[in-house]
Amino acid sequence: MSSGMASAVAVSCIGAMIGRSTFGAWSGTVGKIRLNSTASSDSGPGTEISGGSYVAGGITLGTISTTFGAAGYAGGVASVTNSGAAVSQTNMPATTTVAADLIDNGGTRWWWGDLSSNVTTNLGDTLTFATSSITVQLNV
Fold first, then answer.
1. Which residue among 13, 67, 71, 91 is the one 20 to 30 A from 124 at the CA level?
2. How far is the C-alpha of 81 from the C-alpha of 136, rounded, in Å?
3. Segments making up each domain of the chain, as ranges
4. What's the rounded Cα separation, in Å, for the pair 102 and 23?
5. Cα dihedral: 63, 65, 68, 71 (round 10)
6. What is d(CA 74, CA 19) in angstroms, rounded to the nearest whole number?
7. Does residue 140 sit in helix, strand or coil?
8. Half-sphere exposure for 83 (CA within 13 Å, toward CB)
9. Listed residue (91, 70, 40) closest to 136, CA to CA
10. Residues of 104-129 as b/e, b for ≥16 C-beta within 10 angstroms?
11. pLDDT tens digits, one per residue of 20-56
């Protein structure tokens, strides 16, 4: 499965950490998961799905601090999962979702990743990512 931090965000972050620039990409807490019908990459998002009651820009994650648990570190990997809540979208369009992007409330894409397996929904289905099924990690 391909996944990672968006390259523009990574460059902005590392530049700010060494004092060469400001962290200009940050506009708030990651607050949405955008679903894509084509794969994402470090340089750009996949094609966002549309239709049903899915709103362009992604599924709002609610109170992010209760959706995601505490971050941890083990074996050279910092990570966090949605251990506090499942993430659902009702009334999905008829589509196949292959990837997702985590974006902040200002629309900046922070993380991207292919799903471990494609999810096909029929018009009106509910798509649910179970508790602890979304993992964001940073290899250090």
1. 67
2. 6
3. 3-139
4. 18
5. 170
6. 28
7. coil
8. 8
9. 70
10. beeebbbbbbbbeeebebeeebebeb
11. 777 765 666 778 999 999 999 988 899 999 999 999 9
Name the residue among 87, 80, 132, 69 with its Cα closest to residue 110. 80
Q: Hey, what amino acid is at 55? A: V
Residue type at 125 in one-letter notation: D
The number of CA neighbours under 13 Å toward the Cβ of 8 is: 12
Rounded-to-integer distance, Cα 134 and Cα 113, Å = 10
Amino acid (one-letter) located at 64 = I
Distance CA 26, CA 70 (A): 20
Q: What is the largest CA-CA distance in the chain?
A: 49
Mean pLDDT of 103-113: 86
Q: Supply the pLDDT for residue 19.
A: 76
Residue type, 45: P
Residues, the chain: 140
- Going from the C-alpha of 9 to that of each of 23, 49, 51, 105, 108, the distances in angstroms are 8, 23, 29, 15, 8
